[in-house]
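Dear colleague,

Following up on yesterday's call, I've attached the two folding results inline so they're easy to grep. Please treat them as preliminary; we haven't cross-checked anything against experimental data yet. The first protein's sequence and structure tokens come first.
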Amino acid sequence: MKADIKLSLSKEIGVKVSELRKEKGYSQEKLGFLIDSNKQFIYKIENGLFCPTIATLFFIAQALECDILSLLPKN
């Protein structure tokens, strides 16, 4: 059950990150650079393959100039 919830959260967060990144006109490579990471890491987040930590979400929100809550599912 917990694994299902974590997978669902990871996918929902990934969709939000992808949408906001594209709105800013950033590539995965650019977002990775802005958070001191790489495009493979962003790919994993956006595709729900990795559940980012709060710290990672904070850095992504800063890079995308958005509120960290906008990266989280509404429910």
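Below is the second protein, in the same order (sequence, then structure):
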Amino acid sequence: MRTAVALGGGHGLHATLSALRRLTDDVTAVVTVADDGGSSGRLRRELGLLPPGDLRMALAALAADDESGRRWGALVQHRFGGTGALAGHAVGNLLLAGLMEVLGDPVAALDEVAALLGLRGRVLPMSRDPLDIEAEVTGLGSNGALIRGQVAVASTPGRVQRVWLRPDRPRACTEALDAVKAADVLLLGPGSWFTSVIPHLLVPELREALITSPARRIVVLNLAPEPGETAGFSPEQHLAVLSQHAPELRVDAVIADVAAVPVPERLHRTAAAMLVPGGRVHLAPVAAADPAVPRHDPAALADALGVVLAELDSTELDSTGLDSTGLVNAELDNAGLDSTGLENTGLDGTGPETHTGPDAHAGSAPHGPAPGGQETRRSNPWR
């Protein structure tokens, strides 16, 4: 059994972890620590601790599937009602906050709760220090605006152009770095794109580990744009801003829900700038049926991940540029690509389209390994 690391936060990371646990018992969640709203924000402001909410959700996603695990999982997710001082707090948030104070270390606190839940895997913060997100936003005035705080960025009526972290160049959690370096599979997304997914690429040590890892790197796209930070975003725009924040990052696959991609050719074209040779764009029905809000179905996402990893493992590029399916791994020229190698769509998804051939899952990749990247790739992750 091989190792998988999923990076993100909130409901998106919960979906990824719920899918991964169907494929392997060795799963590590690396979680953003910039939340400043709700129960997490209150505990962070009052106690100066890491915001526990996203960490709690990741723990619940990996709780043991037995009576004890289900009981503890339900308990940590329980939120107090009423109008008193505890109203709105989740039990797991209070438990984590108490353990962080008693033990003096968030990783030790997370491991204690993991033991209570019989965790299948591990949950780690991306940094031991609470962080803040700042964003450059247009559409709020003639000169744009700078917005600070996860809640403010996530709910802005303006258009987010880029984000960064405060303090600048934060330290990565050592255990999270070790997990990324040891992983066979790395997953980014789905989730709040600017406030849960991209922040992992803004921690210098973590970014370097992701870029140079020999693991399979997979991006899972959101099912729909989120009100606020990604309102009106196409699937292509999600990839575009990811690449803008980490131009050196190359990935092995992009997974998207087939119903969420109105023009597959555009997604293939944009993804080509990020894919390694032999990389894939995989469209599959991964959305839950008739949800109250868009969310991934864990079983369907697990199936898609299994298919993608099997395809990646079976694809051997030869010197003729043909992969094992006989599809041409075509090189794209610079026409329609900007100076970063990204499709020059102005982030509006209206750039030129390209025909991807008869295999709707195959992507073409104009780039080799990222600078400083590893030549040897880990194959057959689930063997």
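For the second protein, one point worth flagging: Residues 298-314 form the longest helix (17 residues).

Best wishes,
A.L.
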